[in-house]
Amino acid sequence: MTSTAFRIGAHAIANRALVAPMAGITDRPFRQLCKRMGAGYAVSEMATSNPRLLDSVKTERRTDHDGEIEPRAVQIVGADPVQMAEAARHNVARGAQIVDINMGCPARKVCNVAAGSALMAQESLAVSIVDAVARAVDVPVTVKLRTGPDTRHRNAVRLARAFADAGARMLVVHGRTRACAFRGSAEYETIGEVKAAVAIPVVANGDIDSARKAAAVLRFTGADAVMIGRAAQGRPWIFGQVAHYLDTGEMLPDPDDETLRTALRAHLLDHYAFHGEGRGVRSARKHVGWYLRGLEGAQAFLARFHALGSADEQLCEIDRWFGGGSRSRPRDAAANDIVFRRSHAA
Asked: How far apart are CA 336 and CA 195, in angstroms?
């Protein structure tokens, strides 16, 4: 299987390994790192469409694209077509080149205001939002959705056709329903059905954690690309591994200690500069935990690391950790057990 570029509107996407938007994670430093390590495309963490919060510090930080490798994509969330259209215009004015609509988030605080994946149960409203946003901006509009509200009502195919007719230029389908949240296993039959139903690019998302799994999902669904979220936490090199495997059929190894140290250090420096030292030190802890997950001695190291209060202390502790010699990472056999089935989680 060879990796071929595809397009989102006028934007050429270099490869088929894409970064999923994740709240609190896919800030600009993380998106940049993933792109440098091989991702063909990345979407910002979701930004509210609430007009009172468009200029808030939190929203501006989430939609900051300064110096970002193109194309620059922002995800917006909300349940009002007028507000979503205005949010799209606001973000395009700030540099967004692609606007993604969140209809996939299952978080209670999002669904409780009828946004995110809750919109899949309100089909007319969902289509109205896509139509309003597509009419409001002259950049491509994409939609990230799930397979349906629950396992008894998988309506992704019907909505996909309606979204394409309303102006969507790409769809990302997570292989779970809203009710499933992240429980059980993603199923890929529905993604394949969506791909067969529309002429625009379709991206498969959910439980893709290795290059081989990515290739298998693409073969099974016929999708144009894969989007990786949780498996990229602490593993930004997964995108380069996936893209290389799709191009060549060859597996790239995980980074050695020095490559890992360099990537982690670069990420932290950019992270501190972007968030400020106080906020950056606190939020860096989760990233470091993900990077070192599965490494021998990591648990004791992280107990010390999480008590540190400055960027210099964190960086020095990282250097000491990697100066202690090579550490083995347990082999993850999960990627070899590729099963395609519908999830029956409630």
From this structure: 25
Beta strands 11-13; 6-8: pairing state: antiparallel
Contact present, 201 and 224 (Cβ < 8 Å): yes
Residue 342 in this model has a pLDDT that exceeds 60? no
Q: What is the pLDDT of residue 345?
A: 37
Evaluate if residue 10 carries a pLDDT over 90: yes
Nearest CA among 15, 9, 65, 27 for reference residue 225: 15
Q: What is the pLDDT of residues 22-80, one digit of tens each?
A: 988 999 999 999 999 999 999 998 888 776 766 666 666 766 777 788 999 999 999 89
How large is the average pLDDT for residues 83-101? 94
pLDDT at 63: 67
Nearest to 161 by CA among 150, 145, 174: 145
- Exposed, middle or buried, 250 (CB in 10 Å: 0-12/13-18/19+)? exposed
d(CA 192, CA 189): 5
Rounded Cα gap, residues 63 and 47, in angstroms: 7
- Name the phi and psi angles at 251, rounded to 5: -90, 130
71 preceded by cis ω (within 30°)? yes
List 34, 105, 111, 180, catalytic entry: 105
Mean predicted lDDT score pLDDT of the chain:
87
For tokens 């779970």, name the residue.
176
The dihedrals phi and psi of 345, each to the nearest 5 degrees, come to -65, 145
* Cα–Cα distances in angstroms (integers) from residue 85 to residues 94, 109, 121, 265, in the given order: 14, 21, 21, 39
At 160, phi and psi to the nearest 5? -60, -45
Concatenating the DSSP letter of every residue in 51-106 gives GGGTTSHHHHHHT--TTPPSSPEEEEE-S-HHHHHHHHHHHHHTT-SEEEEEE---
Distance CA 138, CA 52 (A): 24
> 105 catalytic, yes or no?
yes
